[in-house]
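Project channel, design review

CF: Before we commit to the Senna tora constructs, I'd like one complete example in the thread so the newer folks can see what an input/output pair looks like. Taking Amino acid permease 6.
RD: sounds good, go ahead.
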Amino acid sequence: MAMESQMNINVCVEAENGGLHSKFDEDGRPKRTGTWMTGSAHIVTAVIGSGVLSLAWAMAQLGWIAGPIVLLIFSLITLFTSCLLTDCYRSPHPVHGTRNYTYMQIVKTNLGGVKYLVCGFAQYGNLIGISIGYIITASVSMVAIKRSQCFHKYGHDVGCHTSNNPFMIIFGIVEIVLSQIPNFHELSFLSILAAIMSFGYATIGIGLSIAKIAGGGNHVRTSLTGTTIGVDVTSSGKLWNTFQALGNIAFAYAFSTVIVEIQASKLMNSHDTLKSSPPENQAMKKAAFTGILITTTFYMSCGILGYAAFGNTAPGNFLTGFGFYEPFWLIDIESWSSKRWAKSDFVTKEHYISIPVFGIFRVNKFRVIWRILYVIVTTVIAMMLPFFNSILGLLGAASFWPLTVYFPVEMYISQAQMKRFSPSWVGLKLLSGLCLLVTLVAAAGSIQGIIAELKAYKPFQSVS
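CF: and here is what came back for Amino acid permease 6:
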């Protein structure tokens, strides 16, 4: 309430001074200056993530025909539902309506409280899973560096197997330190750094694949249908791996949880989000098309060249390295707690500590304890279940239908007041139903993969 009051005061002052249009939008927030180009840059940053590392393996399960087709279908579905979601940014009218600043707020406005809670459960659960997945792959990345040094020193015939657990703990400690930075999600340079990293490791993966193909050496087997039954996998293994590959590709396109924040002002510096003219939904559709086109080009390159380089024996993680994800819902919970217990010094009081060179640092007891506990829990779970492809497949399956398809479709139907059983209504419902089926089989394949790996795995004893 205090923040809203201050915004209203700012608007009144600026209006009196004749400068309202220069500093504030109609909602009283700082005037946005972003364009479709900055929006597409944020989309590329959000989409190109750890999912790119599993695409060569996914392509190996599907083959030369189904692999590229499935990748293209997922990109088109994501683009279509993203456009539906952008039309719901303002309610009840996509151009003149009131702004909704988060994904969950849009769901609450258009679908009501029950589905709002379901959306929250799906979104928060997905972010917890992503945190676990990133810990797993970050540790594998660090182990890969150590193993490469071992291979260089002792030769490739030596196993050089190393436990993942110490590196998970190291990564967890780094997370604990970084998570204590106040307003971490508002550091604008993170988008630039993330974009460099996204393009960096995708380009490195493409370059390494081209180098491996050009270098010749051992012959790799590829086929139109992917891995061969009786040679590479069993018949049941082929089926489950195919399902799991769908989950891996779905995970690669999982960015719907932040598309609203890109369009609004939650995720990055508010001045860099889309300005009001032209209408945000028009600019965001153009940004989504550009961002997904660039992303799909990279994904196709990584998947196809990775499969050509490694063949049917493509590794689950063909690069072993990716960036950091800050779970933004942690900040949401902290904001809710500060309102719920506004008079509690433990929750709301900020302590200021002077650190040489770095200056004044704000510390809050609740924030410190809450974020440390979160990192510890996700790190322990990652140490218990360090299965890269299976975890990514399950995450992709869990997030694709509810967050990428179901809620955007249902909100668009509600906002457009679409008549039941009209051609458009039937078409959207059919799309949602088919995507639900894909999600279920992808989840089944990933869960089966986790179960199979657990049979031969001893907790806290993973090695690479």
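RD: helpful, thanks. Residues 1-31 form one domain.
CF: Residues 1-21, 265-272, 321-331 have pLDDT under 50 and may be disordered.
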